Amino acid sequence: MLPPILLKIAGALLLSLTLAGLAAGLVATRSELSATKVSLNEQKAVTDSLRADIGKIRSSVSAVQRISAVTRSDLNAALAAEPAWRDAVVPAGVADSLCKRLRCPKQP
After folding, report:
1. CA–CA separation, 63 vs 56, rounded Å?
2. What would you measure as the largest C-alpha separation in the chain, in angstroms?
3. CA 84 from chain center: how many Å?
4. Interatomic CA distance for residues 33 and 31, integer angstroms
């Protein structure tokens, strides 16, 4: 059996090593937590920026839809005012050129 003083020294040494290990683990955990917090803040900034962009896109789409509705209404009114022109045959070259831009359905 070891003398009591050696048992106390061994116990103190074991306790010191355990505390040192815990302290090292705590420091590593704190460092990882800090890095994670920085990453989270960066991701939040990107998310906030994307949300702002989505808001701008929605606003732009709404504006384009309003303009489109007004334009469609104006065109329908203009065509209704000129039925002879509205019902006239469109020359093939003009139709082909327009269909390249408008993606017309294929004619039989």
Report:
1. 11
2. 119
3. 50
4. 5
Task: Tell me the torsion sign for CA atoms 42, 24, 21, 19.
Answer: negative
Is there a contact between 51 and 43 (Cβ–Cβ < 8 Å)? no
Q: How far apart (Å, rounded) are the C-alpha atoms in residues 60 and 85?
A: 34
- Whole-model pTM: value is 0.54
Alpha-carbon span 85 to 65, nearest angstrom: 27
Q: What is the mean pLDDT of each run of 10 residues along the chain (108 residues)?
A: 86 92 92 94 96 97 96 94 90 87 74
> What is the secondary structure of the chain as a DSSP string?
---HHHHHHHHHHHHHHHHHHHHHHHHHHHHHHHHHHHHHHHHHHHHHHHHHHHHHHHHHHHHHHHHHHHHHHHHHHHHHH-HHHHTSPPPHHHHHHHHHHHTPPPP-
